[in-house]
Design brief:
It contains 8 helices and 8 strands. With 271 residues, it is an alpha/beta fold. Strands 1, 2, 3, 4, 5, 6, 7 and 8 form an 8-stranded mixed beta sheet that branches. Strand 5 and strand 6 form a beta hairpin. Helix 1 runs antiparallel to helix 3, helix 1 packs across helix 8 and helix 2 runs antiparallel to helix 5. The longest helix has 35 residues.
């Protein structure tokens, strides 16, 4: 049998598109044998790997309020982040319980960045909720997660699409989902915060271009999210719908890729 891997990329609020993509795949009988996730892609990927259905994820998303994530840290400049991360930790624990990677229905890995070594860290053992929290720990916003000698932050800083995990899975078919998409038009009249956020988006676009050239994947799926901000909790239903549309639009391509790989494996086995 052909083994399929979904690599779900970083994207903040835009990452809700991953849920729509998974819904489209489910409806068309395309189920992954492996899932790799980064940042918001790790949240969605871990939930799906644990057995949670896309419609169940959207129930959580539709009820999501900003105050459920915000827990301001007093004197943040003496700490490591503006938020204490206790609320996001609680939410992940409610979604994933105390599951370990070995407990998941689908093999799953996620990536984080180690700011001690400056290297990408692949998380594949231990508590899933804690690993996902590390993978999505946006620097300055959420507290980093310390694991041994490592200090882990959002994997999107290093590798927005987690294609590095694919070599561990030995997947035959790799579908990468990039919810960040093309860099939007630069608006010169915006202020300081928008300039900083633009710099982050530009760096992410550069990293994605480089890694897509370097790492193997059979298809890149890019939901059309326009200028939706990854930094604002709004338009989440729109992100889901566009992810679903992108999934449906690529169903035939994915099935053809699977059929081709199946034929190649059969020919190879008959030699």
């Amino acid at each position: 049998m052909v083994k399929i891997c979904f690599a779900l990329g970083a994207g903040g609020a835009r990452g809700v598109a991953h849920v729509g993509f998974l819904q489209a795949m489910e409806e068309n009988g395309i189920k992954p044998d492996f899932i790799a996730g980064c940042s918001m892609g790790s949240v969605v990927g871990a939930c799906y790997a644990s057995g949670m259905k896309p419609n169940e994820m959207m129930e959580v998303v539709d009820d999501l309020k900003l105050l459920q994530l915000l827990d301001a840290s007093f004197f943040p400049f003496n700490k490591k982040s503006f938020l204490k991360s206790s609320k996001i930790k609680k939410m992940l624990e409610e979604l994933l319980g105390d599951k370990t990677f070995a407990d998941l229905d689908i093999p799953f890995e996620c990536i984080a960045g180690d700011i001690v070594s400056g290297e990408v860290t692949i998380l594949r053992e231990g508590n899933v909720a804690e690993a996902v929290r590390a993978s999505s720990a946006i620097p300055m916003v959420f507290s980093p997660v310390e694991v041994g000698d490592k200090v882990l932050v959002d994997g999107g800083i290093y590798m927005p699409i987690p294609l590095i995990c694919v070599k561990d899975f030995h997947a035959d078919v790799v579908i990468a989902v990039d919810v960040l998409g093309p860099l939007p038009e630069y608006k010169r009249d915006k202020g300081l915060i928008n300039h900083v956020l633009r710099s982050i988006d530009a760096n992410s676009a550069y990293l994605r271009r480089r890694q897509l050239k370097r790492y193997r994947h059979d298809l890149l799926v890019c939901p059309r999210l326009g200028d939706m901000s990854q930094f604002k909790i709004e338009n989440l239903r729109f992100a889901y719908e566009e992810g679903y549309k992108a999934g449906i639009a690529n169903v035939d391509k994915i099935k053809k890729i699977i059929e081709k790989k199946q034929s190649e494996k059969l020919m190879h086995s008959n030699r």
